[in-house]
Amino acid sequence: MYGFEAMTFNVNGGFLEAIVRGYRAGLLTAADYNNLCQCETLDDIKLHLSATDYGPYLANEPSPLHTATIVEKCTQKLVDEYNFMLTQVSEPLSTFLEYITYGHMIDNVVLIVTGCLHERDVHELLEKCHPLGMFDSIATLAVAQNMRELYKLVLVDTPLAPYFSECITSEDLDDMNIEIMRNTLYKAYLEDFYKLCKGIGGATAELMCDLLSFEADWRAVNITVNSIGTELTRDDRRKLYSNFGLLYPYGHEELAVCEDFDAVRGAVEKYPPYQAIFAKLSFGESQMLDKAFYEEEVKRLTLVFEQQFHYAVFFAYMKLREQETRNLMWISECVAQNQKARIHDGIVIIF
C-alpha cells in the first residue's frame, strides 16, 4: 500500500469510492443469470429485473417489451450513476472520469459518419449513439466529406481534437478509411489515457496501466484478425497498434506479418497471460475470440476491487456495467427470437 496516498485519498475520493463500491454490489450475480436464462418472454425478464437495481427503470414500461427498451433502460441507469459521480468530484478524478467516456465519443463519431456514408437518416443514427459519448455538435458530422472537413467543422472543439493529428487527410471517407480512423483515434486515446494514469501515480497507475495494456493488446489482436485478407499493408497495420502493452514491441512485429488466425495465435500465445485465452479456442476458431477476451477482462476488472485508495474502481465499474448490458441484450435477443439453446454462448458471468 502507498502510505501517503492512503492517508490523503479519502479527503477528495473517499465518498465516491464508497458510492461506487455500493453500486458494484448491485451487479447481477450468477444466480440472477441462471434465473434470467429460464425466462420464456421479455416480460418474464422484466419481472425478474424488477427485484434488482434495474427495477425502477423498467417499472413503467408497457407490454409488449422490446430488447431495445431493456438495453436503453440499462444504459440509462449507468448514465445516471456516471452523471451523479461527475457532479461530486474534483481534480484529478473529474478528468479521469471524463476520459472514460472518450471511447464512446469515438464510437459515436464512427457510427454517424458510416451511417451518413450509407445514406441513413441522421436522427435515426443519433438515437443509436451511446449517451455517454454525446457532444454538442455531433449532429453536424453528417456534412463532412473527408477527414479534414470532419476535423475543421466539428471535432476541433471536442476532447477528441488532439487525437485527430494523425488522421487528417483529404481522402474521401469510405468504409476502409473510417475503420482506419477509428483505430487511429483509439490508439491516440489509449496512449493519452495511459499517460494520464501514469501521471496520477500510486495504485491508480499500477492498476490502470495494467488494464489499459490489456485493452491495447486486445485491440492489436483484433486489428490483425480483422485485417487478414484486406488491402491493409503490414506497415499500415503496425501504425494502428498502441505504443505500450505486453505485446509491445516484439509481439507487434510478429502480429504485423500474420496471414491467418493460427499465426496470430502463435504470436500471442508466447505471452503467458494470454495463453489461457487461446487455450479455450480450437485451432482456426476465431468466432469465440471476443468472448474469451471479455471473460479475461471481467476477471481483471473484478480484481481491481480488492485494493483501496485508487481511481481504477471507477473505470472497472463502468466497464462491468457495460458488460452486464451486453449480457442482458444477448439474453433478451435469444428469448425474443426463440433461440434459447444459444443463450449461454454470449454471456460473460461477472460474479
UniProtKB/TrEMBL annotation:
Keywords: Hydrogen ion transport, Ion transport, Transport
One annotated GO biological process: vacuolar acidification
Top-level taxonomic group: Eukaryota
GO cellular component: proton-transporting V-type ATPase, V0 domain; vacuolar proton-transporting V-type ATPase complex
Entry annotated with the keyword Transport: yes
Molecular function per GO: proton-transporting ATPase activity, rotational mechanism
Subunit structure: V-ATPase is a heteromultimeric enzyme made up of two complexes: the ATP-hydrolytic V1 complex and the proton translocation V0 complex.
Family of this protein: Belongs to the V-ATPase V0D/AC39 subunit family.
Job of this protein: Subunit of the V0 complex of vacuolar(H+)-ATPase (V-ATPase), a multisubunit enzyme composed of a peripheral complex (V1) that hydrolyzes ATP and a membrane integral complex (V0) that translocates protons. V-ATPase is responsible for acidifying and maintaining the pH of intracellular compartments and in some cell types, is targeted to the plasma membrane, where it is responsible for acidifying the extracellular environment.
The protein's name: V-type proton ATPase subunit
Organism per entry: Marchantia polymorpha
